[in-house]
Amino acid sequence: MSRTATYHTTVHWKGEYLGRILMGNGPEMDFSAPPDAHGHSGVLTPEDAFVAAVNTCIMMMFLWSAERFKLNLLSYACRAEGTKRVELNKTESFTQVALHPHIVVRSDEVGREGTLKRLRRALDSAVKYSLIANSIKSNLILKPEIEIVP
Amino acid sequence: MTNDPDNAIELRVDKYIFRFPNKLRYSEDGLWVKQEGALLRIGMSDFVQQRSGDIAFAIPTPAGTALDAGDEIAAVETVKVNLSLPSPVKGKIVEVNSLLQESPEWINQEPYGKGWIVVVQPECLGRDVGRLIPAKAYSELARQHAEAELST
User: Fold this and answer.
1) What is the ipTM of this complex?
2) Where are the domains of chain A?
3) Which residues in chain A are contacts of B100 at CB distance < 8 A?
4) pLDDT digits (tens, 9 = 90+) for B38-73
5) Going from the N-terminus, what domains does chain B have, and what CATH number goes with each?
6) A59-82 pLDDT, tens per residue?
7) CA distance A108 to chain B (A)
8) How many CA atoms lie within 13 A of A34 on its CB side?
9) Hey, is the C-beta of A60 within 8 angstroms of any chain B C-beta?
């Protein structure tokens, strides 16, 4: 389907380098720049939000695809790391986002190899169908650590 | 749309490219049919497999099953949808692609090759094959479906 949907956030300046964001899905929080860029510590930053968008979207899509591939998922945790590059003209961009998911699944009737193959396909599909992964120009690197338990 | 008569029609819609080999015939539901003597090999067309997404499971109806036209020849589960593939002909399934049990992704990777689904012995070969449409007509149908979907 080539349908469209829209999502909203609203920001307000609170003074200094501090703002308040209202997310379309309900939560509200303060945000700033990172401390090394004159911001405040302890609050959301655009940098964290970008890396979090990738990390959370891939996880949500993996939960869906794991269900579609009938995996017996026991746990999922993922550390994501965005790498920022500062160009000669002082513009900046995230050149890559590396994801390190730690996934534990229970082996099923197809055996360890069959389960592993299905899990890898589910991970590939999670990336392929991730809205955020499809929307960014940074390289996405997936370095999964997988455990298949009996 | 390009047509290499020895090979396949290539349909381009938006950023998508769909291939339809000329040597095959097609059902309006998007299954391809290849006549092999008195038997018919059947699979999913490139359009249907791309539109359906990554295939997680493909479960062909068992060999020996008698079919009416429209009966399910396979249940297919993709990352996005569940499909019941309707038989384009009346007959009996004589062979299923056992490769799909372990590797259903062959339907995505080689829809006209290793990704075939079943072989059917039709009750009336001439009548059933005559109802199917050639690649050019099916590609036009696929274009209409694709454009309608893209415009919504």
Assistant:
1) 0.82
2) 1-44, 46-149
3) none
4) 999 999 999 999 999 999 999 999 999 999 999 999
5) 2-147 (2.40.50.100)
6) 999 999 999 999 999 999 999 999
7) 13
8) 8
9) no
